[in-house]
Amino acid sequence: MEKTPQGTSVGVDDPYEFAGVCDHLTGEGTCRYAFDYYEHDPEFASERAEAEYACPVVDPESEWSWADCPHFRSRNRDRECVRCGLEEKRLAHDDERPLLEEHHLSYARDGETLSHEITVYLCRWCHAKVHNSWARITDDAAPDSEAIATLEERRSREQSELGFESAAERYDRDE
User: Where is this region: Disordered (predicted)?
Assistant: First the structure.
């Protein structure tokens, strides 16, 4: 199983199983990284420019995979835990700890070179289980009871703020 630099588990054997399309890929199949960040890797950008910035991974005639691209990055945008399915519930103007945390699936493989950025969202309860034990992201897991209680408490506060109370009712109660 993949490990963090501190030696804790990331919960998967192959991070690419959880990777979606590259964040730098445009809808037309071009590489936005080579165009926007030319100065970061001029050799890569020149190769892509010669190919009109076409991404070789999505080219059906190419044998490239996401693992072959030096600038691949895939961050999950779904705001729910990939392990237990708990959905995020944030309240405006509230700085409570989020229910979901970004979880990195890939780290430096050889101790020096940072591998690709592949991230998913885990609720903070599943995140702790994955890093502190043998738990895997692919486990068939239900949300932790504490997670459900926290989510429901946030939902009830949200519902109470949506309720209408006239100024007359509010002022009568204050007296």
Answer: 151-175
Residue 104 and residue 5: Cα distance in Å, rounded?
A: 11
DSSP secondary structure code for residue 57 in this structure: T
User: For residue 152, what are its two tokens?
Assistant: 């429901």
Of 98, 129, 144, which Cα lies nearest the Cα of 8? 129
Question: Which two structure tokens, joined as six digits, stand for 86?
Answer: 């708990």
| pLDDT 10s digits, 46-57 | 999 999 999 999
pLDDT of residue 25: 95
Nearest CA-CA partner of 35 in 27, 46, 23: 46
- pTM exceeds 0.85 for this model: no
What are the residue ranges spanned by the domains of the chain? 20-71, 75-175
Q: Which of 29, 128, 115, 122 is nearest to 74 (CA)?
A: 115
The residues, any chain, with a CB within 8 Å of residue 54's CB and separated by 6 or more, are 29, 30, 31, 48
Contact 171/48 with Cβ under 8 angstroms?
no
Query: 94-150: per-residue pLDDT in tens?
Result: 788 899 999 988 876 555 565 788 999 999 999 999 988 888 999 999 999 999 999
